[in-house]
Amino acid sequence: MALDARQKRRITILGSTGSIGTSTLDVLRQLGGRDRFDVLAVTGNGNVDLLAAQARECGARLAVTADENRYGALKDALAGSGIAVAAGRAALLEAASGDADWVMAAIVGTAGLAPTLAAAKRGADIALANKECLVSAGDLFVQAVSEGGGRLIPVDSEHSAIFQALEDDQRHAVERIVLTASGGPFRTWSREQMADVTADIARAHPNWSMGLKISIGSASMFNKALEMIEAKHLFDVRPDQIEVVVHPQSIIHSMVGYVDGSVLAQLGAPDMRTAIGYALTYPQRSPLDVKRLDFARLSRLDFEAPDETRFPALRLARTALTRGGLQGAVMNAAEEVAFHAFVGGRIGFLSMADIAEQVMDKLAHLPPASSMDDVFAADEEARQVAAGLIR
């Protein structure tokens, strides 16, 4: 969305209390804060103390908690501030539908789908950190962005890297998209070793500081599996053009290979603020206080093929891409249910992929989605099947 350079940019942050949301607020602070940005709304879930503190600091007009039971606590925390307070799903959708021209979509899980879609339909530029929008409803979401007239700018470090390495006038010459993966904390572990890990062990990522869901998704490589599906919709490539390579140092964030043999890569220290800052000021770049690479001290950059026997989520992503239809939504919903069961100690680490695969096979007959109702119906059915398998 084109803006007059003299205008403040109107910002809404969906999921401000998570790791992406807090990093977004830090980027706003670095790039001028209230002098340059008008924060219309910040939203969170249960952490209303942090949400209130964020709203006060950035001068948000509205603070929304998705948890209706936390409305009173949030209202008390913001008493006397002049900041409006709301709670619940309807309030979340209203905040997303507001008059922001740039929306950070950082609500984790399927809960972020409806509000992000609402922002896209209104025509806001979407800084996309929510995977489910494209994994569960890729074609419908891309269509909504196009019809709304806004821009879709990826914030995941991998997709941001591809976005930056794509030459606009050479899209026809793209041969392959190469997503890099750190390999997570279990890159060198055997399946036998992984069978007994706990959530506390799985959440300890070697390179990135992330929330629980994303950290465990990295450990199981389900995050990378979802990113494969996202890449298809973001960059309009065929499934066979999407590759994954394990790169433990997380310095090369992803690459684009062209038909002449050239490969363009985006490099940087592991810090989500770089991708967030690029999304916020695109197509310009603004100075950020993040770590710079010292190439003289980079002793090595390693690469290896991913082991789909130890990390079957990658194989499941290829299955979903091949089958098409609602398989992405089914895979994502089943994984979310399995994730909560793993965190709750009801299933083992390796069982998450087993459950997702069984649910995908049981629901492989579902036709392509013609509306968001179809997506939500498939999501609910997949959750019920997964829950039954876990019981």
From TrEMBL:
EC number per UniProt: 1.1.1.267
Gene Ontology biological process terms from the UniProt entry: isopentenyl diphosphate biosynthetic process, methylerythritol 4-phosphate pathway involved in terpenoid biosynthetic process
Highest rank taxon of the organism: Bacteria
DXP reductoisomerase C-terminal domain boundaries: 267-384
HAMAP family assigned: DXP_reductoisom
Annotated residues for binding of 1-deoxy-D-xylulose 5-phosphate: K131, S157, E158, S182, H205, S218, N223, K224, E227
Function summary: Catalyzes the NADPH-dependent rearrangement and reduction of 1-deoxy-D-xylulose-5-phosphate (DXP) to 2-C-methyl-D-erythritol 4-phosphate (MEP).
InterPro entries: DXP_reductoisomerase, DXP_reductoisomerase_C, DXP_reductoisomerase_N, DXPR_C, DXPR_C_sf, NAD(P)-bd_dom_sf
Family per record: Belongs to the DXR family.
1-deoxy-D-xylulose 5-phosphate reductoisomerase C-terminal domain mapped to chain residues: 152-235
Residues reported in the UniProt entry to bind Mn(2+): D156, E158, E227
Protein name: 1-deoxy-D-xylulose 5-phosphate reductoisomerase
Source organism (scientific name): Shinella sumterensis
Cofactor(s) needed by this chain: Mg(2+); Mn(2+)
Annotated 1-deoxy-D-xylulose 5-phosphate reductoisomerase N-terminal domain residues: 11-138
Catalytic activity entry: 2-C-methyl-D-erythritol 4-phosphate + NADP(+) = 1-deoxy-D-xylulose 5-phosphate + NADPH + H(+)
Molecular-function GO terms, alphabetical: 1-deoxy-D-xylulose-5-phosphate reductoisomerase activity; manganese ion binding; NADPH binding
Binding, NADPH: T17, G18, S19, I20, N47, N130, E132, G211
